[in-house]
Amino acid sequence: MYGDGMSAQTVGLRELKKRQTRENISNQATRLFLERGFDNVTIAEVAAAAQVAKMTVTNYFPRKEDLALDTHEVFVQSPARTVRERRPGESALAALREAYLAAVAGHDPIIGFSGPRFARMIVDSPALVARLREFHDDREKTLAAVLAEETGAGPEDITPRVAAVQLGGVLRLLFEETLRRTLDGHGDEEIAQVVAGYARTAFGALEPSLAGYAVRPTR
User: Which domain of life is it from (predicted)?
Assistant: First the structure.
């Protein structure tokens, strides 16, 4: 039910307008960052390019870094969601390996296939490098929480955190390798072939400790 004369259509239009405004701000910011470098663009300049007030920009993006890295939620939640949705009889390790290889095949930007200009923008900005490190840290913590939930681990059980550090470390390593090769001028297809092989090696190295961990029960 919608009070104060508001209809579902009105609410829907407002949400659409918010999404469009957010997308416009993000697109204009990215264009400016790619042209001039992240550290050389101000919030006021982004607001002017998007034709909105400076306060509107900060309402949607409280941190300037998130104007460039507008994927925090997806980045952080993806491995946790993969674990939640794993098939009966499938371990967390197997599910994450399969999901990663599928993302490699699709050249997914979330795992590092961002293109050379975007990659250069990131590494040239200490602020963005630091923010990206926070993304990885947040992802590991979120994954640890889900592993604890899925395995029924108690608050004093360190196992989910140990597993998350290992799995998150592999994902972090592969992301950095993809970024490095992008900056070195390699094409997406070539990078995909290499990191897919690295992924099989890296996830395979975790088999002795994690192959039987967080396996979804079969019923």
Answer: Bacteria
Where residue 4 falls among pLDDT bands split at 50, 70, 90?
Answer: low
The rounded distance, in Å, linking the Cα atoms of 93 and 103 is: 15
Angstrom distance (rounded) from CA 12 to CA 82: 29
pLDDT of residue 99: 98
How is domain 8-64 classified at the CATH fold level?
Answer: Arc Repressor Mutant, subunit A (1.10.10)
Q: How far is CA 84 from CA 101, 116, 154, in A?
A: 18, 33, 18
Q: Pick from 168, 214, 174: which is nearest to 197 by CA?
A: 174
Quickly tell me which residue has 């998150």 as its tokens: 168
Other C-beta atoms closer than 10 Å to the C-beta of 23 total 13
List every span in the chain annotated with CATH 1.10.10.60: 8-64
CA angle centred on 135, ends 131 and 136, rounded to 5°: 120
122-127 contacts at long range (C-beta below 8 A, 24 or more positions apart): 122/38, 122/68, 122/69, 122/179, 123/179, 123/183, 124/37, 124/38, 124/39, 125/37, 125/38, 125/39, 125/68, 127/38, 127/39, 127/64, 127/65
Please tell me whether the overall predicted TM-score, pTM, comes out greater than 0.85 for this model. yes
